[in-house]
Design brief:
With 602 residues, this protein is of the alpha/beta class. 51% of the residues lie in helices and 13% in strands. α5 (183-193) runs antiparallel to α6, α8 runs antiparallel to α10 and α12 (444-461) runs antiparallel to α14. The longest helix has 58 residues, at 322-379.
Length: 602
């Protein structure tokens, strides 16, 4: 796929741009910003439309619209404008896309055998598809482009790698559009792009999300249960015993036989109730004692008086000033800081102890009432009074049984969710092992890319070009790209992180990727915006040499933007860098006619 032409229905507003492509792809496509009035400080060669053209291509290649998009933001200025892009398909024929800012979701598409057709006046009924939504147009155009390498992804996923705006030179693979999203959106695609099976990479992210959701659900479920997961067997046994007690007690009440229940009640009173009350009393004593000690500590105030120290020094005829005084002041400040931190910790601890005391007192009150009821039954000689009391006891035990049954059901749900978490974590471990095994076996595409990329970096930057995939500490598919450290093969240096070098590494990355795929159904163009800005002339020329070598095969269309001051020069009177037919669009700072859109700045 290459771009052959961009034009509009208003030539006075937007002049047609004819690109070098196909048989002429060995010629560069330069968007050149010229300075005609260098002495006029009010003019600016950086605001002519070089980057706007890139955004226009994105728009015509069916990027979704947003309020900040220039055609949307300044829609009133472009009323009635229809824009067209003609694309050379990998099949050899051409496709034209028509889209306008008035209704960007109404798109026309047609396919034709000849290039250079001007379809401005073509009636809608002669377009193959005169009225498509953006989503429909993307699907259709994706089929026409037939970029087999990308399947199952569509062309929109990868096109931004070959439309590099200034903000896309900060990372070779993580473009601006990926930076706000999750890695799960774009890293599986990166794996696919280099010939790996992306399903394991995608599955790892899916499992991460699933495990996170399951753990959140488990926490919510556990909050409604008074028991931990490991308490389920104990709870089931407790329910079984309590159910048996209820059945036996009901049978005894029906027969007015209370001896067995009284013996059970007495044993429970001695072995459990009295024992727990004793334990609570001891814990209450310890908590109350600790609270009292904290209160005493909080009431203590520092009584270190620096003036008193100075008086003592004075009375002892010792000079108290300068460094000695400063050290004492620092000691006082340090002591105050330690005291504040200690007091904050003590107050937090006191709050915790207060809560414990309230819980213990509530539990003790509950046990005291139970003991009182049970002792009343044991001491009573009135059979009907015992019957009524034990009946209430049965009701309470039944209520407790219902509560425990509900707790068991909820706890079983927690246990089931925990089991799902463990199963998912085991599967995630297997998937991570699959990814590790995958990156340990480089694909042919991966190996070819590394060889070409390293060669380009050696030629342009005089450093080894390093690129490899690995599994990071989170078990995710990851990569390293950079320049090698001199004398240490395979080790990246910080030099590749500089703005200028990073830009060059990104450009060489794009060229190497296009080189790898130059003979198959893939993109065969790249647009580098402001690639020469802030570069050393020697690096510009070295990059240009690589670009010309690659485009000489006519399989890569290279589009670049620059301004006159960025032209590389070897000496004062060096010959022009670009032939006249390589400058496909010349912009300048002498009025509206020099801008991409022939209107005032926006």
């Amino acid at each position: 796929m290459q771009i052959s032409r961009i034009y509009s229905n208003k030539d006075d507003l937007f002049h047609p741009i004819d690109f070098n492509f196909g048989e002429h792809a060995n010629r560069l496509n330069v968007i050149f910003g010229d300075v005609k009035k260098p002495k006029d400080k009010k003019r600016d060669s950086h605001n002519l439309g070089k980057t706007t053209l890139l955004h226009l291509i994105e728009f015509l290649m069916l990027k979704g619209t947003a309020p900040e998009q220039f055609l949307v933001k300044h829609q009133d200025r472009f009323s009635g404008l229809h824009l067209f892009i003609e694309i050379r398909l990998n099949s050899g024929d051409f496709a034209t896309v028509r889209r306008g800012p008035d209704n960007p979701n109404k798109i026309a598409l047609t396919r034709h055998a000849e290039c250079g057709r001007r379809l401005v006046d073509l009636p809608d009924d002669q377009w193959d598809h005169p009225e498509l939504s953006n989503a429909e147009a993307i699907k259709l155009l994706d089929g026409w482009l037939d970029l087999k390498i990308l399947k199952p992804y569509d062309y929109r996923m990868a096109i931004t790698y070959f439309l590099r705006a200034q903000g896309d030179f900060s990372d070779e693979l993580q473009l601006q559009k990926f930076q706000m999203g999750k890695d799960a959106y774009w890293k599986p695609f990166v794996a696919h792009l280099f010939g790996f099976n992306e399903s394991s990479v995608q599955r790892k992210y899916e499992l991460d999300d699933s495990i996170s959701s399951l753990k959140q659900r488990q926490a919510e479920q556990a909050a409604a249960v008074q028991y931990a997961e490991e308490d389920l067997p104990k709870l089931q046994a407790q329910i079984s015993v309590l159910r048996q007690q209820v059945e036996e007690l009901e049978s005894q009440l029906d027969a007015f036989e209370f001896d067995a229940e009284e013996r059970r009640m007495m044993k429970h009173l001695v072995d459990e109730v009295e024992s727990e009350i004793s334990d609570i009393n001891e814990r209450l004593y310890n908590v109350t004692y600790d609270i009292r000690q904290i209160d005493v500590a909080l009431e203590h105030k520092d009584r270190f008086d620096l003036d008193e120290v100075a008086t003592i020094f004075s009375e002892s005829n010792v000079f108290f000033a300068g460094q000695v005084k400063k050290q004492y002041e620092e000691l006082v400040d340090f002591n105050k800081k330690v005291t504040r931190e200690r007091n904050a910790a003590l107050r937090t601890r006191r709050t915790t102890l207060d809560n414990q005391r309230l819980e213990l007192e509530a539990r003790k009150s509950e046990l005291d009432k139970r003991r009182e009821v049970q002792l009343r039954v044991l001491r009573s000689t009135d059979t009907f009074d015992k019957f009524k009391t034990l009946q209430r006891e049965v009701s309470e035990q039944k209520a407790q049984l219902v509560y425990l049954e509900e707790q068991r059901k909820k706890l079983e749900i927690v246990v089931a969710t925990a089991r799902q978490v463990r199963e998912s974590e085991r599967e995630r471990g297997r998937v991570v092992d699959e990814i590790k095994a995958m990156v340990a076996r480089p694909t042919t595409i991966y190996e070819n890319f590394r060889r070409i990329f390293n060669g380009y970096c050696q030629r342009v930057l005089s450093h080894e070009g390093i690129f490899y995939f690995f599994v990071n500490t989170n078990g995710n598919f990851d990569y390293t790209i950079g320049l090698g450290l001199a004398g240490q093969t395979g080790k990246t240096s910080s030099q590749g992180e500089g703005t200028s070098y990073k830009k060059l590494v990104c450009a060489l990355f794009d060229l190497a990727l296009l080189k790898v795929y130059e003979d198959v159904g893939f993109f065969h163009f790249v647009y580098h915006d402001g690639i020469f800005e802030a570069l050393d002339d020697r690096k510009k020329l070295a990059l240009l040499e690589v670009v010309r070598e690659q485009t000489s095969a006519k399989k890569t269309q290279y589009i670049m933007t620059l301004i006159a001051s960025d032209l590389p020069r070897v000496e004062e009177k060096s010959p022009p860098t670009f032939a006249p037919d390589e400058i496909v669009l010349r912009l300048h700072d002498d009025g509206a006619d020099g801008r991409l859109f022939k209107m005032a700045e926006f």
